[in-house]
Amino acid sequence: MAGPPRFPDLSPVELVGRIERAPKAELHVHIEGTLEPELAFAIGRRNDIALPYESPGAMRQAYAFSDLQSFLDIYYAAAAVLRTEEDFFEMAWAYLQKAQADNVVRAEIFFDPQTHTARGVAFETVVQGLGRALERARRELGISAALIMCFLRHLSEREAFETLEQAEPFGDAFLGVGLDSGERGNPPEKFRGVFARCRRLGLHVVAHAGEEGPPASIIGALDALGAERIDHGVRCLEDPGVVTRLVRERIPLTVCPLSNVKLRVFERLADHSLPRLLAAGLRASVHSDDPAYFSGYVNHNLVESCTALRLTTSDAYTLLRNSLESSFLEPSEIARHVERLNGVFGT
Ligand code: ADE
Ligand code: ZN
To answer: pLDDT tens-digit profile of 268-289?
Structure first.
């Protein structure tokens, strides 16, 4: 089988231009993680909900994280300002405009309904607000966007089942389910039953694994949940057997380099394992995770990674192509976007 095309290396400036112009898919972004402090304050004022910061600037200054949990504490607290359908619409619409500026042609967006229903917000309010923004993005921005409903792994499987029951009347509103929140002490196996039910309902399945958790967590996501993509997965390199399996089964890894540095999975971007993932033949692509907290949307993640890790033009092309090919779009749609990507890279 022919491998991906190889390219002579472009100058750094030229490569940045191609990355920015390239059509790409954003497959790992949490919509609650796109809530910029200015918008959080505006929504909080409207809903009479105070944030524990003096100003958006002070809020941003608090974004110094020691690990995943220290981030999640702030992230869930900020989400408390979201109350009405309009709030969810505004947050998603603001994100989708940024995505368009990055030439995102497909966005498969995570949302965490349990964060909101636990505060008394109706499931319907969340999906209708988000859904309206996605529909507007399709019409006005030419972005194809879909939702992936995540279960919070620090909660119980019973609560995940209850959420799925609430979601079922809105089944057309999302294309798949995921698993996020604190990985330590919450292995995929805890959610075996609810993911089996999701698969029977015809939903796509993805899961965060191998971010802070060990390689065994990746195997659990594949075997216990039936995950079709692994979110993060960067710790797979600690177990050659896991790498072999991921390569053999062509399982996509949605890697978020700036997130991994902010959450101390890697000390510096220059230490990130992305080049080793690519060299091992893993199907990695680059995404933004929680861009309002980790100082960069998808293009910034790609450009910073290429620079810090001295990635080649062929590596950048592979990452972009993997993003499109790892999406849940129809093959004919993927082929159309890959053709445009090839045009940008001059193949
Ligand atoms: N929720 C939002 N961002 C997350 C991350 N990086 N890992 C797990 N859960 C998350
Ligand atoms: Zn994530």
So the answer is: 999 999 999 999 999 999 999 9
Residue 36 has pLDDT above 60, yes or no: yes
Our answer to whether residue 249 is catalytic in this structure is: no
Q: Report whether pLDDT(1) > 80.
A: no
Q: Is 33 in the pocket of ligand 1 (CB under 6 A)?
A: yes
Q: Which of 220, 254, 214, 266 is nearest to 238 (CA)?
A: 214
- What single-letter DSSP state applies at residue 52? S
| Per annotation, catalytic residue among 36, 90, 211, 325 | 211
User: d(Cα 217, Cα 21) in Å, to the nearest integer?
Assistant: 36
Q: List residues bridging with 179 in a β-sheet.
A: 151
Helix (H, G, I), strand (E, B) or coil at 59: helix
- Does the pLDDT value for residue 18 go beyond 90? yes
Burial of 6 (0-12, 13-18, 19+ CB in 10 A): exposed
Residues in the chain: 347
Displacement of CA 161 from its chain's centroid (Å): 23
Asked if residues 302 and 285 have their Cβ atoms less than 8 Å apart, the reply is: no
153 confidence band (pLDDT: 50, 70, 90): very high
Fold of 12-37+88-345: TIM Barrel (3.20.20)
Pocket lining: 30 vs ligand 1, CB cutoff 6 Å: yes
Looking at residue 339, its pLDDT comes to 98
289 ligand 1 Cβ < 6 A: yes
Spans of all domains in the chain: 12-37+88-345
Q: Which residues of 128-162 are buried (b: 16+ CB within 10 A; e: fewer)?
A: ebbbbbbebbeeebebbbbbbbbbbbbbebebbee
pLDDT confidence band for 347 (50 / 70 / 90): confident
pLDDT band of 2, cuts 50, 70, 90: low
